[in-house]
Amino acid sequence: MPRRSIEPPLRAKTQAVPPVILAGSAHPALAANVAKELGLPLGACEVTRFPDGEFEIDVRADVRGRDVYLVQPTRPPVGEHLLELTLLADACRRLCSKSVTAVVPYLGYARQDRRETGREPLGARVVAELLAAGGIDRLVCLDLHSRAVEGCFPQPVEHATAVPALVQRLFDVPRPAVVVSPDLGAVKRAEAFARLLGLNVAIVHKQRLSGSDVAARGVVGEVKGLHAVVVDDMLSTGGTVEAAVKAVLEAGAKPEVTVAATHGLFVGPALERLAALKLKRVVVTDSVPAPAQTPFTLDVVPIAPVLADVVKRLDGA
Ligand code: R5P
Q1: Closest listed residue to residue 74, CA positions, set 32, 30, 34
Q2: What is the value of pTM for the model shown?
Q3: Atom 4, ligand 1: which residue's CA is nearest?
Q4: Are residues 223 and 181 in contact, defined by beta-carbon separation less than 8 angstroms?
Q5: H-run or E-run covering 93
Q6: Which of 38, 141, 197, 218 lies 20 to 30 Å from 249 when distance is taken between CA atoms?
Q7: Spatial CA neighbour of 266 closest among 238, 232, 230, 299
Q8: What is the DSSP letter of 52?
Q9: Average pLDDT, stretch 227-246?
Q10: Is the CB of 239 under 6 A from ligand 1?
Q11: Cβ distance 182 to 207 under 8 Å?
Q12: Mean pLDDT of 134-142
């Protein structure tokens, strides 16, 4: 009888379990686009309200033993979206997910990263504690107000940037041009834009008078006869951009000013303020839902590919 060759048993191939992408109610379209970029379906999850207004969360996707990515920019109402995100994270953790990553392209309270008067809370730190209470393992965010915010989180923070994506839409700005930082805090961001566009930077000396009003005290750098591209992390009430645009026009910049910011919140008087400036164009990403209509030309850059890239990198890690 011929001897049978003894072959080692085939080792069961370990199949990579795909991550689960879930959407909160803040921006389901963005979550769907991130999932699409990854070639995954959006996980089933329902967020409704109890009669008294409390969130009623129902994670129906199978998250047991899987890496979950919760996509939820904490756009206004910031507190509501933040709490919803925390509850979603808690639900996933209790369903024995392997890990929970909060994908928060716009992080509210990030501007409260330090105390100015000593009489206010450290808002960014409190937000970090809240998300930690929900049991998040990691945070993915986009163009935080300042990198110092990362220090508030005990968990690893993946800090993505929309600058290269925004720059793609700015190459057609008429030359000669200059990148304008609307305040001292935005100088590094302005330098990043300027490097990619091959332009110089000018800086507006801004003074904040209230939550929605600011004043420009002067411009440092050359803007005379140049097309100004004002760049910022966010457009909230539009007060900062309004003051910066007026300051550079007063200093002799060409009238067709372009504005670019990662987060287009457009709250309060923002739309009217920006309309009155007769801007050439406003460029933002869809880190938060864009307004359906604007009284000025709004160019919205999809940010899902940038977020999906981060998820891919983390998933391969
Ligand atoms: C402030 O330091 C930020 O970078 C933005 O310039 C500011 O928060 C924008 O807010 P608003 O549009 O209300 O002036």
Answers
A1: 30
A2: 0.92
A3: 233
A4: no
A5: helix 78-94
A6: 197
A7: 238
A8: T
A9: 97
A10: yes
A11: no
A12: 97
